[in-house]
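Hi R.,

Here's the chain you asked about this morning:
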Amino acid sequence: MINLSKEPMPVRGDGNHAALITILVVMAIGTNLATAAKAEEAINAFLSGHSADCPGCDLSEADLSGRSLANANLANADLRNSTLFAANLQRADLSGANLDGANLTDANLKEADVSDASINNAIFYGAKMDSADLSLAKGTNPNFSRARLRGARFDGADLYYAIFLSASVGGSSFKSTLLNGSNISGVVFSDTNLQGAILEGVDAQRANFHGAILRDANLAGSDFYGADFSDSDVAGADFSGSRLEAARISPAQIATTKSSGTILPGGAVTQQ
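And the predicted structure, written out as tokens:
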């Protein structure tokens, strides 16, 4: 008969298996520590001015005012609540960076790559941003007042309640850009491409869209009092519920748009 009371045979290699697991855990911890140390070294080198590159670094709340960071690689860096007042970031790579709450007043961002960046409450007041790339950027309440944005690209960006007061945006591209609730009153958009852009509920009083492309743009529920649409392409644009009172736009242009419940230049309201 088989004796079922015998002790089970020990499994060969149990000790070796446990030892291997221990070694792997120690190696993983060592790798993580080395990675953390390397990241800390990169941050220290950047903050001390020995390096202009710090991609993916945690630079939140850092004071980088006046720093010369032209051509710097700061892709995917965490720059939340940082101060970059008057910093030189010309042609810098800030793609994918978190700039929430950052202060870039008077900074030089000419030709900088700010694509896919997060810019909630970021301040670009007076910044020089000619030919900068902000395509696919996302944010609420970013402030571009008095910024120079000639030739800049905002294609596909989602910007709620953005402020562009006295900004210079001539020749820029806002294709398929979302600007709902933004303040663009008095801004000159001459020769700017806003095709397919979404500007619902914006304050665009006395804005200048001379020669701009607004084809298929959603401009519903917005205030365009005194705005200039002369020589602009508004075919397919939706002005439903908007105010065009005192605006410079021809009947022929309006005929190419959707204008249900729109207040026309002469004060008449179109049927809904």
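Residues 78 and 123 are 16 Å apart (CA to CA).

Let me know if you need anything else.
M.
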